[in-house]
Structure formats: C-alpha cells, structure tokens
C-alpha cells in the first residue's frame, strides 16, 4: 500500500487518503458510532463498489447498497427523493453513515443526500474518476441539477473523509481520464508550476493512471484544493481561484447542451482566461503559449469552434459564480498568481474569444495591447470592497 494523507481544515476537518490499496481505511473514516452504512453507487459500478462493501461488512456494519443512474442523470431531485425513501426504510439514523462511490456526479448526489437526510449525516466519498479524485469529492460542495441549470440546488456539507484508491482509475476510458487532467493543469497554472513541469516532462504518461508521475500529479492537485477550501469553504474569497477557466468553460458546456466533457470545456476556458490576462496587460505571451502547449500535449482542446460570441457571452453572464450583475473572471496576474477581474471591457472579452474561436493560423503574432485602451486593468485583491462599475464601451452585445 502506498498512501498520502492530506488534511483538509475548516469547520469540519477531514483527511483525503490517496494511493493504491487504501480501501482498508474505510471503516476508520466511518467511525464507531454508525451501525448502518448505505453505499450509493451508479449502475455499472457494482464491481468497483464490491470491495468497499466487503471491507465495510467485514468491519461489522450493516451494509445497504443503493444503485443510482449513471452520470448526470443521478443529479436529479427525484433520485435524491428515492434515496430518502430508501434511507427511511433502512432506518438510517443520525449516527449512521453514507458512502458515495463513483464519479463526481455520484459523489455530488451522495453528498447532497447525506446533507439533507435528518439535516445531515456523515458521508465518506470514494471517488472513481480523476475529476472526482482531484476536485469533486473534496471541498464539501454538493448539488443536484434543475432544468434551469446545473448545480443550482445544493448545500455545503464536507465529507467525513475521502478515500481515493487510484487502482480503480485503470478502468476509466482514456477520454474521461484526460478530461480530469484539465483540473490538474488548472492547478499547475494557478498555484503549483511543478505540475506543469511534470506534464511537460512526460505528456503521454500524464494521460494514463499508470503514468510515471500519476500519483504525484494527483497528490499535488489535491493539496492545493485542500489548502484553498480549508481557508474558504463557502467560496466567499480565495476559493474563487479554482474557477480559473470555468467561466467560459461553463458557457461552452451550456452551449453544447452538456454533451462536451467538463474538462474539455475548461481546457478552452483556461486558454481564454490566459488570453484575457494577456490582453489586460497582465500575462506574458509565453505564459499563454505554455497554456496552449501543455493543454494540447495531453490531447485537450484549445479552441472551441467559431460559433457566435454573443451566445457564449450571455451564458457567461448567468454563470452562478457571477456576483450580482458583474462578471468576475479569474485571470492570472502572472503565472501562479490568480486574481479576480471585474467587468472587463467587452471589447477585450470579445478579442480574447477571437483567439480561441478557431484554429490559430501559424506564425500569427500575439496582440500585445488591451483593446480597452489600457495596458493594465485595475485588479482588486480578494476581500477588497467592490470597484465602481466599469464604463461599458458602446455597442455592447
Ligand atoms: N462538488 C464539486 O466540488 C464538484 C467539482 C467538480 C465537478 N463536480 C461535478 O462532477 C460531475 C462530473 O464528474 P465526472 O467527470 O467524474 O463524471 P461522472 O460522474 O458522470 O462519471 C463519468 C463516467 O465515468 C464512469 N466511471 C466512473 N468511475 C469509473 C471507473 N473507475 N471506471 C470506469 N468508468 C467509471 C461513470 O459511471 C460515468 O459514466 C459533474 O456533475 C460536476 O458538476 C462537482
């Protein structure tokens, strides 16, 4: 067994245990007070969930397995309501526990169910996709979707522990694994450049769970997320930096009716955010080029086709991370230094989109100046009072 233990602080501290052969840690995370443990897992992952159920049964818990639909179909209030009825029939009390096994959709739903049952019971998450390991299972965000949008209904409910056994990632389709790499790369750009060095040293190896640096990449990414959410569980400040690449990414996902993988949309979104940073006079062109190179090296997209900008711009405006009427975009002040940029000029946003809208003609020189006319836009640090609304250029779409 090789394992790293990463502490997550905040109002309800817990540990992320990551490695191979770590399932034996599950009972300790459940604790001694529980008698019944309800294991929630998607259809299709019965084989992956079985060893966890066996470990729990061997530890003396009454294990009840509940199957949920695969993928996003699980994140529906009707699925949660079905589970509430099953929890009632299993007589799950406040001292009992839920284990959520699966990708981010399953861990989000298991977390939501645990948060709402009896106003909150213990949940341990066992993520089985790269995205869930490095992102979704950590930080206590739970949610279901409604027709009006993704993740609009949810609560913060930190897990009692996260157990990431990387051996299960071997059965993940490569495209799913690579999609999860977008969050790893994001972490490299916002906080830990060693991640980028490791990927550049072996880009092909980075695209598979058996790669030379797989454990280190995962561990470094988790450490950053753990640090950020420890300081800001409810996204009142610094947690916002994790949104790097997500504002345009979410808009692309909406435009594509969520048929595109999250990581693919975020990959383009990161190049976009880097271009905004460059056009705002913040980020050097080499850093933007590095975005394109690292992202392409693992097979993620850097362009999103040339659909109309105004539709994506509108979708960005309704992103739930926007505050009030303001658009807040996380940009890089320099490599490794993310900051929020409020209400950037519309011309700048559109110009940055032109850079990701289609394939780049070879040899094209990057533009150096901010189309809003300033070389450098005013930024405000986290927690500073809001700036006055920027004057909108005429002709805003
Ligand atoms: N709570 C958060 O902070 C947070 C953060 C990021 C994303 N999310 C959510 O995560 C979800 C996306 O997660 P995802 O990308 O893991 O998708 P997913 O949960 O839909 O899983 C993708 C597919 O992989 C399958 N799968 C899972 N593990 C497998 C394995 N080991 N082997 C083979 N197949 C396996 C699943 O059954 C599914 O078909 C979204 O709903 C998103 O909103 C939440």
CATH architecture of the largest domain: Up-down Bundle
Rounded radius of gyration (Å): 21 Å
Query: Spans of 5+ residues with little confidence (pLDDT < 50)?
Result: 360-397
Strand line-up of the largest beta sheet: 1-2-9-6-5-3-4
By CATH, the superfamily of the largest domain comes out as Dehydroquinate synthase-like - alpha domain
Structural class: alpha/beta
Helical run tally: 14
Total domains, how many?
Answer: 2
Quote the average pLDDT. 89
Cα(first) to Cα(last) distance is 56 Å
User: Globular, elongated, flat, extended or rod-shaped: what is the shape?
Assistant: globular
Description:
This protein has 397 residues and is of the alpha/beta class. It has two domains: 2-172, Rossmann fold (3-Layer(aba) Sandwich), CATH 3.40.50.1970; 173-213 and 231-383, Dehydroquinate synthase-like - alpha domain (Dehydroquinate synthase-like, alpha domain), CATH 1.20.1090.10. The protein has helices at 26-30, 46-58, 77-89, 104-116, 130-136, 174-190, 193-201, 203-206, 214-231, 246-255, 262-279, 285-297, 309-317, 346-356; strands at 2-8, 14-20, 36-42, 62-68, 97-102, 122-127, 144-146, 149-153, 161-165, 328-334, 337-342. A seven-stranded mixed beta sheet has the order 1-2-9-6-5-3-4, sandwiched between helices. A two-stranded antiparallel sheet has the order 7-8. The protein has a two-stranded antiparallel ribbon with strand order 10-11. Helix 5 packs parallel to helix 6, helix 6 runs parallel beside helix 11 (262-279) and helix 10 packs across helix 11. Mean pLDDT is 89; it is low at 360-397. Residues 42, 44-45, 48, 70-72, 75, 102-106, 108, 128-129, 131-132, 135-136, 139, 141, 150-151, 168-169, 171-172, 176, 262 line the site of nicotinamide-adenine-dinucleotide (NAD).
